[in-house]
Amino acid sequence: MNQHVLVLNCGSSSIKFAIIDAETGAAPLQGIAENLGAHNAQLRYSFDGKETAIELSDNANHKEALASIGRVLKQHDALQSSIIAVGHRVVHGGERFEQSCLIDPLVKEGIRDLAKMAPLHNLAHVAGIESAQDAFPDLPQVAVFDTAYFQTLPKHAYLYALPYALYEQHGIRKYGFHGSSHHFVSHEAARLLNKGIGQCNLITAHLGNGCSITAIKQGKAIDTSMGFTPLEGLVMGTRCGDIDPSVATFLIESLDYSAAQVSALMNKQSGLQGISQLSNDCRTLEEQQALGNENAKLALDMFVHRLVKYIGSYIALVGPLDALVFTGGIGENSSYIRQQTIAQLAHMGFSLDETLNAETRFGRSGRISDATSKSVFAIATNEEWVIAKDTIHCAFKA
Ligand code: ADP
């Protein structure tokens, strides 16, 4: 059996896990422990296409969930003995972590320190790391940072035009997120183009609940839409993306919002959800729009408008474009969003093949543009595979 990596994505109330074949990227076993800290904590996983659900004890925490994942693995002997390392997705690596690294006490401390920039994520990651170290004491554990992929951004792209001391003293700058996904789909695009990644100018749009878009010049990220936090940039499921910062001060000074209320408003009540007042789910909005719901149509129109604006500006940055890539739940599956976006880019030399656009969904990857167009691909992302490969590299080859 090939070597496998246990890939963990620990959130504040959930742990997504997958056993990844480091050679092929396949996931023979994957699942989620959710509602941690609540009365209905549960572990669900699929193995060989069979779904299993296990009730966890009331208020089960990360430690109990990981112990339970350990017990599930014990039931699959051959698979368990093929696991050679644990890879942790870590959202914020700041400027300190330029690449993935083997976790030692200093690295753990560094991830904890960065919690001031990503409080929900990084503290949950530390809890997950400590629990995984208890549950799998014999396996090397590696941290793979969402932000590391964007270390190639030039300073003039990652700085905000704020007083420079804020960057120097407090690290206020653009970091970028979804790095493993942009990394994966850019390499897949290079493969489809039959070119070395270093020869490729690409724009990769990861459109899921969170959405980000990256400009890649000669294989390296040179700009990206998410910023100091994952709030900046595109319209997302519940996040507003780009906004005049004065809206925040207006809400606080004139409408008596607290800082926490502004943050909740912009992160959890805005985006597709806030505009449509219906749902953050693109599928629901497409269905409702088809039934004539104007709010759903407006939310989708705003989503596409912002996306088109970013694509246009990134074309200006990367120079002659080799391919535009759609990925993430919406990018991989919504023929509608892809069609609406490309229709607005017709004057820039883009057009879709309707059949390919309709068929390239649900895990299928490939070209969706027609023969006259610049290349447009829809590519199913596999962030876990990037994490697994990096984990093996750090644990055994670095
Ligand atoms: P996350 O960022 O949480 O990982 P995903 O990448 O799974 O999210 O993307 C979730 C989004 O993908 C939701 O808005 C969902 O509606 C959308 N989506 C999934 N399948 C489809 C589909 N067939 N058509 C349109 N949108 C879809």
TrEMBL record:
The keyword Membrane does not apply. The active site is at 146 (proton donor/acceptor). It is an enzyme of class 2 (transferase). It catalyses: acetate + ATP = acetyl phosphate + ADP. Mg(2+). Can also accept Mn(2+). One of its GO terms (cellular component) is cytosol. Its EC number is 2.7.2.1. GO terms for biological process: acetate metabolic process; acetyl-CoA biosynthetic process. One of its GO terms (molecular function) is acetate kinase activity. It is found in: Cytoplasm. Catalyzes the formation of acetyl phosphate from acetate and ATP. Can also catalyze the reverse reaction. NCBIfam families: ackA. Belongs to the acetokinase family. Homodimer. This is Acetate kinase. It comes from Paraglaciecola mesophila KMM 241. The gene is ackA.
